[in-house]
Amino acid sequence: MLLSVSDLKRTYRRGERMFSAVEDVAFAMDGKDFICITGESGSGKSTLLHLLTGLLKPDAGRVLFEGRDIAALSDGERSRLRNGRIACVPQGYSLLNNFSVLDNVRLPRCLYGEKRGARAETLKKAERLLARMGIAPLAAERPQNLSGGEQRRVAIARSLIADPALLVADEPTGDLDPKTATSILEFFAEIHGEGTAIVMVTHERERIPFANRHFVMDGGRLWEE
Ligand SMILES: Nc1ncnc2c1ncn2[C@@H]1O[C@H](COP(=O)(O)OP(=O)(O)OP(=O)(O)O)[C@@H](O)[C@H]1O
Ligand SMILES: [Mg+2]
Q1: In terms of Cα–Cα distance, which of 41, 37, 40 is closest to 51?
Q2: For residue 136, which phi and psi values (nearest 5 degrees)?
Q3: How far apart are CA 71 and CA 56, in angstroms?
Q4: C-beta atoms surrounding 96 within 10 Å
Q5: Is residue 208 within 8 Å of residue 36, measured between CB atoms?
Q6: Ligand 1 centre from 45 Cα, in Å?
Q7: Nearest bound ligand to CA 41?
Q8: For the segment 100-115, what is each residue's pLDDT rounded down to a tens digit?
Q9: What residue numbers bound the domain in which 94 lies?
Q10: Least crowded by CB within 10 Å, which of 10, 60, 117, 174?
């Protein structure tokens, strides 16, 4: 099993009261799954993804990735995981403005796991990914000079630089036009075919068929359709 989640719970405080953003979530996926999660705004989707990638710690329950409890890892081991075997495309803005687009894409590889003498190879790969995202001419730009959709595509390219076993993407095509969005989803289908498991949150129902499993989230609870 690639990822196995049990009795997962995460509460937040709102005013005087606590409420569960994620409540009793359990599921498992193997390396061949492409899971799509839909659900209303505020239903807990992003919170769940943050728990899956170890950005947030659960109040109860466990996330096992390749048999290892993510919450039990050290901070260093967790960041190494997130820049290696697990990749994230977060919902909000996540690029570093004092680096070029190309360097943003290379970064996970430079921080962790770049073998000696592999710099040229990483560069080439980053350029290939930018080309696949349709934004090769933007490589030398600073992220703040890019449109929202272009920034989103840089974040997708960055997430794939380390050949992750699991890609976790939060509305990756939310700010893209339909044609670009479809081309990105086709690319996801391709890397899924090559052996990358995917968990993707989307609001666009027409994206659901790209996945082989569909989950719905409502009020912090998750179930499979
Ligand atoms: N840091 C936080 N502190 C308190 N409440 C939070 C925090 N983060 C999220 N929430 C609340 O938890 C609930 C779930 O939020 P979450 O971001 O997971 O929703 P979502 O399903 O991703 O929504 P959207 O589709 O709008 O992105 C919401 O009611 C939100 O207001
Ligand atoms: Mg969200």
Answers
A1: 37
A2: -55, -40
A3: 9
A4: 12
A5: yes
A6: 8
A7: 1
A8: 999 999 988 887 766 7
A9: 3-224
A10: 117
Q: What's the chain's Rg over C-alpha atoms? A: 17
Q: What is the enclosing helix (H) or strand (E) of 10?
A: strand 3-14
CATH number, domain containing residue 87: 3.40.50.300
The predicted-structure confidence for 212-223, as pLDDT tens digits, reads as follows 999 999 999 999
The model's pLDDT over 24-44, given as tens digits with 9 standing for 90+, comes to: 999 999 999 999 999 999 999
Best mutation site among 10, 17, 45 for ligand 1 pocket (most ligand atoms within 8 Å of CB): 45
Residues lining ligand 1, CB < 6 A?
Answer: 12, 21, 39, 41-47, 91
Domain count, the chain: 1
Residues 6+ apart with CB under 8 A from 187: 132, 133
Q: Which amino acid is at 212?
A: N
> Whose structure tokens read 């390219």?
157
